[in-house]
Design goal:
The chain has 206 residues and is mainly alpha-helical. It has one domain (47-191). The chain is 35% helix and 8% strand. The chain has a two-stranded parallel sheet with strand order 1-2. It has a two-stranded antiparallel ribbon with strand order 3-4. Helix 5 (153-168) packs across helix 6 (174-191).
C-alpha cells in the first residue's frame, strides 16, 4: 500500500512540474507586445497571421523587402482612417475624396524599398489597406507593388473590390476586411469564388 501511495505522489508531482513549465504561444503582429508570460510567434514570412496589425507603426523605414507578393510587414504594417465609418466608405466617390498621395511621397515609398529604376506599368504605389476599405495615405500604408509575376497589383485590386462588396453587403465587418487585406491579401484572393470576375480598377492608379 505504501509503495502504491508513493508512486501516486510521484506521478502527481510530475504532473504539477510539467504543467508549470508549459507556456502558450500567441501569434502576434510584428511590433506587437505579447501578453505577459506568453511567447510570440509569426509565420516564416513575418506575416501577422490574421491578427490586427499595429496600425501606422513602422519598425523599419529603409531596406524594405517585398517577398512572395506581400509587403515588408516591418515597413508597411498598414494604416487606417479610424474615424471612417462603413456608411462613408460605402458611399460612391468616398475613396477619391480622401486620396492624397503626391509624387514626393511615392518617391519616398520607392526609395524605402530600394526601387531605383522602373518601367511604366511595372509597379504601383499601392495602399495596403485600400481607401475603399478605410485605409489612410500614411506611408506606413503604402508600398511599391509589382505587376508580375502574378498575382500582382491587378489581382490585389480585385481583392479590394471583393472585400468592399462584402463590407457594404454586410457580410463582413469593417475591422474584418481591414485585417484581411493588411495581413495577407493573397489568402483572400485564393479563397475568392471567382478570381477573374470584376473590375481591377481601384484608387491606386499611378
Amino acid at each position: 500500500m505504501r509503495k502504491y501511495l508513493s508512486g501516486l505522489v510521484v506521478c502527481i508531482a510530475l504532473l504539477v512540474v510539467f504543467s508549470a513549465c508549459s507556456s502558450t504561444i500567441t501569434v502576434a503582429p510584428p511590433g506587437a507586445t505579447a501578453p505577459s508570460g506568453q511567447a510570440t510567434a509569426t509565420s516564416s514570412t513575418g506575416a501577422p497571421s490574421g491578427q490586427e496589425p499595429n496600425w501606422g507603426v513602422q519598425s523599419k523605414t529603409t531596406g524594405c523587402k517585398a517577398q512572395g507578393g506581400l509587403q515588408d510587414f516591418a515597413c508597411t504594417p498598414g494604416d487606417i482612417i479610424k474615424s471612417a465609418t462603413k456608411s462613408q466608405i460605402c458611399t460612391p466617390g468616398y475613396a477619391g475624396s480622401v486620396r492624397n498621395v503626391p509624387q514626393s511621397l511615392k518617391n519616398k515609398v520607392y526609395a524605402s524599398y530600394g526601387v531605383k529604376t522602373r518601367k511604366p506599368g511595372q509597379y504601383e504605389v499601392d495602399h495596403l489597406v485600400s481607401l475603399q476599405l478605410g485605409g489612410s495615405n500614411n506611408i506606413a500604408n503604402l508600398w511599391p507593388e509589382i505587376n508580375a509575376p502574378k498575382p500582382g497589383f491587378h489581382e490585389k485590386d480585385r481583392v479590394e473590390n471583393y472585400l468592399h462588396d462584402q463590407l457594404c453587403k454586410g457580410k463582413m465587418t469593417l475591422k474584418q476586411v481591414q485585417i484581411a487585406i493588411a495581413t495577407n491579401w493573397l489568402t483572400v484572393y485564393k479563397s475568392m469564388p471567382n478570381k477573374s470576375s470584376g473590375s481591377s480598377a481601384n484608387d491606386d492608379s499611378e
